[in-house]
Give the backbone structure.
Amino acid sequence: YSRRMGQDKASITLGSLRLIDHVINAISPLVSRLRIIGSPKTSKQFRPPLPYQIQDDLLPGKGPLAGIHTALATAKHPYVFVIACDLPFLTTRFLSGMCSQFERGYDAVAPLQNNLPVPVCAIYNRSCLSTVEEHIGTNRLMAQDLLQSIRTQYIGDPILQRLDPTGNCLLNINTKKDYKRAHQIINSLVEPQPDP
């Protein structure tokens, strides 16, 4: 639930889809297992049958770090994409490019936005679960701090510009102003239909 938006962001509609559906469409071609992770209140709005699994946070009330923790603790594969539901302009091309940037010896790969890492659009190695648990146990809940505690490969310019030429992939919807901007972008992408 977003206090600033006044509702759960996953279910907010942008264009003809919910925010979460935009993200699902971008990531689905790249993963073998897709899960929606959130608070129990959030997961109640998604009803079966679904083409993905619903997973409640194992440690609710710990913000985005709870989602990262749950994703890693319940992962069946060594690498996990963690993507927030409020990134409607992500593309499969962008996410695939992130995969291609992941190098051996790193625990995570994350893009930079305005020179700050984006921990809720990142790929994590399951091996960093103990560090996530340590952060939660000591109440260090800033997900950006987590990325500084592990070996993180950051994606910045010029690679970021190549993966995201529009500069919109990492636009997240945190405020009503962001939502209005996202609507403007969506409307600019929709081509007008000719009169019959």
Observations:
- Residues 136 and 145 are 11 Å apart (CA to CA).
- The mean pLDDT is 89.
- The first helix runs from residue 19 to 27.
